[in-house]
Amino acid sequence: MSVMVVRKKVTRKWEKLPGRNTFCCDGRVMMARQKGIFYLTLFLILGTCTLFFAFECRYLAVQLSPAIPVFAAMLFLFSMATLLRTSFSDPGVIPRALPDEAAFIEMEIEATNGAVPQGQRPPPRIKNFQINNQIVKLKYCYTCKIFRPPRASHCSICDNCVERFDHHCPWVGNCVGKRNYRYFYLFILSLSLLTIYVFAFNIVYVALKSLKIGFLETLKETPGTVLEVLICFFTLWSVVGLTGFHTFLVALNQTTNEDIKGSWTGKNRVQNPYSHGNIVKNCCEVLCGPLPPSVLDRRGILPLEESGSRPPSTQETSSSLLPQSPAPTEHLNSNEMPEDTSTPEEMPPPEPPEPPQDAAEAEK
Amino acid sequence: PTSSRKRKHHHSHDWHLWSLCWSHCSAKKIDRQQFEETVRTLNNLYAEAEKLGGQSYLEGCLACLTAYTIFLCMETHYEKVLKKVSKYIQEQNEKIYAPQGLLLTDPIERGLRVFRLKLPFMKTEA
């Protein structure tokens, strides 16, 4: 006789999130789909530092000072911590519009632009808002069906709109945006320092040892040195340059995305309104400013899809995190939760006909 | 007929203004004054969360020095203010909007872009 034990599996919100991210540790870790280059980064850093600690440090600690490996260890740990923080955290992904909001906006767009023939993309929709006497243009994102906040951009690799989008970094395996930019900057800064440090002390080691046993003998004794010097040399050129570039961006409170597009440069363009005009203030804001929490709520529990279940009020929006359906009617039919009959229907100011099922649902 | 009113919130320093886009008038008219007051208070709360000042810099530097491990035991200033916001919204819902048959959702759920007034029950009114 066999007894079947049915274990109720709890579905968390991250399992149903749209976009091309991978999640680990039950939603605690969020990364892009392609992680190969991230593993390469890890391998290079860990490998080079292991060689450094194993060979050069033993000699240098005795000959020069034990502080050398200690400082190297601190730099190594700090850069690993910031790397993992950058790679694993939510960069500032903006949740997609709920189906009713999306339907409303699309109807509004259609109303002003006229009917769009099937298969053709309607013209980019820009909404102007006046905020504190400045005109702000918001662009409409067709994938996420939202008007993007200023400085947000859609990442095509992760298929998400990200706030204060900087760029998608394959080395880190994630987008760099509002919530992880400071970690990214601290990572490339500490990695530059670590690279310079390891490079310099490798040279010192080779020099010191060559005086005693000769250059070729030194290389034969610790062949890892050659490898380390090579890796550090190439890393120096790329990472240090990148750090310099990002230091410049931080000082001006700009993103890579804006810099590439030339949003704030040029004769007829507005000056960067986000810059305080003061380098110190800009740095402080970008690196030490307040950090908003993730709005994705990856670990929230999705309510069960049963008609008898009464989801708590905070879970109301979770029902709309199900895969986006093209027509709003489909969404309403798949929702069997009693609370959802309360979802308001969108009615545009001029009156194009609504799908009849919406009205039927509303009358329930 | 139902309605969904949307607010667009621009989430940058200095630019806290909720611009009103009334989608259309519904059978249920809510007090515009009351609503603007709610919005204004929420604006002020978010401005407080994003304020750049001594406290936020201190928190940022301290966090950096401890390799951000301090957040395992401490809550950030922003999170504290967000808790205040959700308490305020709950309070407003209880006092003002629920008696009118409306429910205000917390804007943080939609990434501080929009918030919705939901009608928990439908009334067929003219």
From TrEMBL, chain A:
Pfam families: DHHC. It is found in: Endoplasmic reticulum membrane; Golgi apparatus membrane. It comes from the Eukaryota. Residues 310-323 have a biased composition (Polar residues). It is a multi-pass membrane protein. GO terms for biological process: cGAS/STING signaling pathway; ERAD pathway; host-mediated activation of viral process; negative regulation of T-helper 1 type immune response; non-canonical inflammasome complex assembly; positive regulation of cGAS/STING signaling pathway; positive regulation of pyroptotic inflammatory response; protein maturation. PROSITE patterns: DHHC (PS50216). GO terms for molecular function: Ras palmitoyltransferase activity. Residues 303-364 are annotated as: Disordered. GO terms for cellular component: cytosol; endoplasmic reticulum membrane; Golgi membrane; palmitoyltransferase complex. Residues 346-356 have a biased composition (Pro residues). The chain crosses the membrane at residues 37-55, 67-84, 183-208, 228-252. The DHHC domain is required for palmitoyltransferase activity. Residues 137-261 form the Palmitoyltransferase DHHC domain. The keyword Oxidoreductase does not apply. InterPro entries: Palmitoyltrfase_DHHC (IPR001594), PFA4/ZDH16/20/ERF2-like (IPR039859). Its EC number is 2.3.1.225. Belongs to the DHHC palmitoyltransferase family. ERF2/ZDHHC9 subfamily. The keyword Secreted does not apply. Keywords: Acyltransferase, Endoplasmic reticulum, Golgi apparatus, Lipoprotein, Membrane, Palmitate, Transferase, Transmembrane, Transmembrane helix. This is Palmitoyltransferase. It catalyses: L-cysteinyl-[protein] + hexadecanoyl-CoA = S-hexadecanoyl-L-cysteinyl-[protein] + CoA.
Automatic annotation (TrEMBL), chain B:
One of its GO terms (cellular component) is Golgi membrane. Keywords: Golgi apparatus, Lipoprotein, Membrane, Palmitate. It is a lipid-anchor. One of its GO terms (biological process) is protein targeting to membrane. Signal peptide: none annotated. The keyword Membrane applies. InterPro entries: Golgin_A_7/ERF4, Ras_palmitoyltransferase. It is found in: Golgi apparatus membrane. May be involved in protein transport from Golgi to cell surface. The ZDHHC9-GOLGA7 complex is a palmitoyltransferase specific for HRAS and NRAS. Belongs to the ERF4 family. This is Golgin subfamily A member 7. It comes from Sciurus vulgaris. The gene is GOLGA7.
